[in-house]
Amino acid sequence: MAVTGVPPATVDAQPPRPDESAAVRVPWHRTPENRAILLGIGMFAPAVLFIATLIGVPFVMAFVYAFTDVKVGSITSHYVGLENFRSILQSPSFRKALVNSFIFTITSQVLVIIGATILSTALKDRFRGRGFVRFLILLPWVAPISLGAIGWKWILDSLYSVINWVLVALHFYKPYSAPMWLGEPQLAMASVILVHTWRLLPFSTVIMLAGLTAIPKDIPEAAQVDGAGFWRTLFQITIPMMLPIIMVAVLFGIIFTFTDMTVVYVLTAGGPYDSTQVLPSLAFFTGILAGDLSQGAAISLFLVPIMVAVTYVMLRLAYKSEGA
């Protein structure tokens, strides 16, 4: 007798396997690796566009202009070869500006590094009001340099100088006999250097402070336990360990100083008698104000090999000091 109600035997049903050769193809831009590449390109593109448009195009134009006789307002120009470079090398103003550029850069950077070392060492440890002091130190860097330079121009003015007023009030000078800070060649150069040092000091201080805080605390503490005083710890431990950071600060400072003309332009406009004229200001006065674009471009191109050489040397020194 057949048994009813028993379901027939069934075979385990499995879903059909897809053909491996017909796997779904993921679009190229949707894979994780390629999406990371596209993200990097998208974040890097604005910087490349900025450099290409605001730095690359003017540099190419300056390179082309330096070998022509183009002037402001001229319709045509002609190729003149190295004539512009010969002309500026024979110019006393160019030679004076070249020497002034080195004096201006080297002196200001020595003062900046010394001041930044002192300030970063003083601001490393906590004390009451440290945040406010840091804010005051950063003000010269975050404030517009043209505004700060105009303020310094009033401070150093021959008639309204507050410095001269104090010197006369303290009887160091008689009335109307105080120094003309921006009217005498040596004082004018000293004034320009001090104002630029005041401007660049906060930037170097921040870099040095970051390097100082990165030094492990146990190293100076171990030196103090061994009997090393403040000055020995500073010159034999702190500064050698900070040497790569110092090199970076010096490199940025040299680039900012050697290619800057704002302080010179606002305070002295290169005077008196070209005593404060530097290469960037001479290129501006020659190419823009005087209208000789070819000569101005040739002067500005002299900055390129100097900056390349300085950058290479400073980076090599930083690399060697870091490896040591």
Structure characteristics:
324 residues; mainly alpha; MetI-like fold; 14 helices; 67% helix
Tell me what you see in this structure.
With 324 residues, the protein is an all-alpha fold. The protein has a single domain (82-323), classed as MetI-like fold (Orthogonal Bundle), CATH 1.10.3720. The chain is 67% helix and 0% strand. It has 14 helices and no strands. The protein has helices at 32-65, 83-89, 92-124, 130-142, 145-155, 162-169, 185-213, 218-225, 230-241, 243-258, 262-267, 279-289, 293-301, 303-323. Helix 1 crosses helix 13 and helix 3 runs parallel beside helix 7. The longest helix is centred in the N-terminal third of the chain and has 34 residues, at 32-65. The termini are far apart. The model has no long low-confidence stretch (mean pLDDT 84).
Helix/strand layout:
Layout: H1 32-65, H2 83-89, H3 92-124, H4 130-142, H5 145-155, H6 162-169, H7 185-213, H8 218-225, H9 230-241, H10 243-258, H11 262-267, H12 279-289, H13 293-301, H14 303-323
Helix pairs in contact: 1-13, 2-13, 3-7, 3-10, 4-7, 7-10, 8-9, 10-14, 12-13
Calculate the terminal CA-CA distance, rounded to whole Å. Answer: 99 Å
> Structural class of the helices, strands and pairings?
mainly alpha
CATH H-level superfamily title: MetI-like
Portion of residues within helices: 55-70%
Number of strands: 0
Work out the helix count: 14
Rg over CA atoms, rounded to whole Å, is 32 Å
Shape: globular
Name of the CATH first level: Mainly Alpha
The total tally of domains equals: 1
